[in-house]
Amino acid sequence: MNQKPRAKSKQKVALVLTGGGARAAYQVGVLKAIAEQYPRNHASPFSVICGTSAGAINATALAVYASCFRLGVKKLEYIWRNFQCKQVFRTDGLAIAKQLSSMLCKSLHADYSKRNGFSLLNNEPLQELLNNYLNYKRIDQNIARNYLDALSVTASNYQDGQSLSFFQATQQQQDWQRARRHGKKTQIHTTHLMASTAIPLIFPAAKVGQDYYGDGSIHQLCPLSPAIHLGADKILAIHLEQPRKPACAIDCPPPNSAAIAGHLLDSIFSDTLNSDLERLQRINRTIELLNVDQQQQLDLRPITSLSIKPKIDFEQIAHDHYSHLPLSVRLMLATLGIKKDKPSAITSFLMFEQAYTNYLIREGYQDTLKQIDKILAFLEN
């Protein structure tokens, strides 16, 4: 499509990228379709960029290249198109066996002994990848040059059970505090991304300051909150949820441990965003009934939103690409009850292999092109 975009909206547009592990490749396809509608040297149409878990990595990459939207998406696409599990976590058999045996022996350690947190996988390779590809200094430069207003990365504090949004923004932006969530101004770095992407039990908790943090989706009751606090007038959200399946027509066998774990991860990553969007729409309808003075008195303002939801079956697609996982990873998954003869949500989160990620990029790209006029109108009006 060669349609030229219209002038950039005067309103502050926020991009919200949810978590979902390897599923986040779908977001790259969506962003690619949007970026192609802009000139090569055009700045990002998003003034505020918020990400959680794997979405935090994509969000940070976009913030690093906020001065050139297409280049940022191109860099992001290159990484996702060439992904291998070994770039995210250790996949050699010896490393996995050592990790699993270490977990089994933890109960024998004294509470005061120094030890790493519980996790099935060692994600040190991801830290190296982020350090190599992301030039965090560019975030401040883009903010200073008005290419970007704010970047937010959300993690979950295991100590106090609160959702903490680390954000980098203009000098005027202050910290915020709400029930079970708050925002803290800081310089975003790899440490914050490792915290936001630490899927519980799968990857180890990450230490930031004196506290340990896990995946930002765990305690994130209001995923739109960071974007709103950072001044968004409009919010474009890209989901990564698994479409709901119809109920069984006949008696189904009880779910095994893998099915239950997959269901819990799906709920963590997707359910809160849907409910938060519904709440935003209800507030907007309430605001329509108030005059300007009442809106100012209640500190309310209308915020429009647009959601892009995948219709693809992530579980089935990951199952179709199951053989692309390293043998050591497949053996480890088998110990959890995940087998090649049955799709699993867990596999769709851990399938950091290029055959799978390329498929998701293509699907996200095609889905977005089908509604590109609607998206552009939302971004630029």
Produce a short descriptive summary.
This protein is of the alpha/beta class and 381 residues long. It is built from 15 helices and 10 strands.
Question: Which helices and strands appear, and what pairs or packs with what?
Answer:
Blueprint: E1 13-17, H1 25-35, E2 48-52, H2 54-64, H3 69-81, H4 93-105, H5 124-133, H6 137-144, E3 150-157, E4 163-169, E5 176-178, E6 181-185, H7 190-196, E7 206-208, E8 211-214, H8 225-229, E9 234-238, H9 257-287, H10 292-297, E10 304-308, H11 314-320, H12 327-335, H13 345-350, H14 354-369, H15 372-380
Parallel strand pairs: 1-2, 1-9, 2-3, 4-6, 9-10
Antiparallel strand pairs: 3-4, 3-8, 5-6, 7-8
Q: What does this protein structure show overall?
A:
The protein has 381 residues and is an alpha/beta fold. It has helices at residues 25-35, 54-64, 69-81, 93-105, 124-133, 137-144, 190-196, 225-229, 257-287, 292-297, 314-320, 327-335, 345-350, 354-369, 372-380; strands at residues 13-17, 48-52, 150-157, 163-169, 176-178, 181-185, 206-208, 211-214, 234-238, 304-308. A hairpin with a 2-residue loop joins strand 7 and strand 8. The longest helix is centred in the last third of the chain and has 31 residues, at 257-287. Residues 1-9 have low confidence and may be disordered.
List keywords for this structure.
single chain; disordered N terminus; 13% strand; alpha/beta; 381 residues; ten-stranded mixed β-sheet
